[in-house]
Structures are given as C-alpha cells and as structure tokens.
Amino acid sequence: MNNEYWLDRWERADIGFHQNDINPYLREYWQALALDSDCQVLVPMCGKSRDMLWLREQGHQVLGVELSLVAIQTFFSENNLTPKCIDEYPFSRWEANGMHIMCGNFFDLREKDLANVSAVYDRASLVALPPEMRKHYAHHLVDILPPATQILLITLDYPPDEMPGPPFPVAVDEMHLLYASHMKIKLLAQHDVLAQNPRFQQRGLSRLQERVFLLESNKK
Predict the structure, then answer these.
(1) Which domain holds residue 178?
(2) Which of 55, 65, 204, 214 is 20–30 Å from 34 (CA)?
(3) 113 close to 143: Cβ distance less than 8 angstroms
(4) How many domains does the chain contain in total?
C-alpha cells in the first residue's frame, strides 16, 4: 500500500472511511486527557475529518497532517473556511481559524514540526496501515513527539483472514508491542459493534470490536 493508493481514493471520492458525524468516542473520552483548552492537538492522516472542528470548538489549536490536497481543500470548502497556504518544504501548510493542516507525507514529519503538540487524536491512522507499516508509523510518531504527550487512539479488531483492509485489525497484543516500551497504555473502552455495522457484516466479518486507548508518554 503506497501513497498513490490513498491519493487515488481521494481523487475518486472513494472515502467510505470518512465519518460525517463527530466520533462519539472522541466526545466521551477526550476529557480523560485533562488537557489545557488552548493546547495543540495533532491529528495524523486527518483527511477531511469533522473531528478537527470539534477539537477546535474545545479551544484547541489543531495540527492535521494529510497526504491528499483534495482532502484538505474539501475540508476547508465544506466548512466555509478560506485558508491561507504557506510552503514549508517538504510540506505546504494550510491555515484557517486555528486549524493548520500540513499537506505531505506523515513520515516526513520531524520533531520540530510537533514542538508545540500536547496530544494526538488517532481514529483513522493506525487502522489505515497494513501490519508491515504500523511498526514504522508507531515508532516514528513516538520518536518525534514532545515529552509527556498523550494519545487518544481508537482501533478496530476482527479476524484478519475474514476481510482485507483497510481498515485493518489491531489486536490488543499488537498495541503493546507497538507502544508499551515508550508509553503507558490504558484501555478506556471496548465494544462489540458488528450488529451496528451492516457493511462489515456484508464483507463477511463474524466479529468486530472497537477499542479506545489512552497512551501516555514515558519520555522525560
């Protein structure tokens, strides 16, 4: 799975992964991070997620990262925002109303780009990546985050042989393999959601669970 895969999906508007409503787990569990209202929140692989609007409404500065320019332009146009664009190689930065989206490859992010980040909201990043890429993603993210950063992470889990991703299943054991050496991991919620997701039933799943994790950095 390469960059062209995601760019093509946005070009074709094949974005079944996009949620039109604010994620209910974000609303319910965000307060567990106990953040200052004006802190900066990173939303990796953000697409045109409306969750960024909710985070901004809480007072946070929002820093999104997204590969597709189509997704970024659609986000601002659909929400009646007129962004300014600043070229900061290897990214272009789109800004409006306290929301900043960097257009480019997540793996090109460096520590200096995230110097003001206090928290990460990951609903659609880890589960968008196949197993061979998740380790690279997690390690890169942990390496460049400031000390004491918290992550609210939402995952899916299902029998991997029953459906090709994305979204991909992430088991609890894998979560610990990816993050436990650098972060404290707390499971906030686990729900069986197959009955509420007929499109996944149609794809042949026998089990579907959503989990919400709070990760707290061990970096000093």
Answers:
(1) 3-12+24-217
(2) 65
(3) no
(4) 1
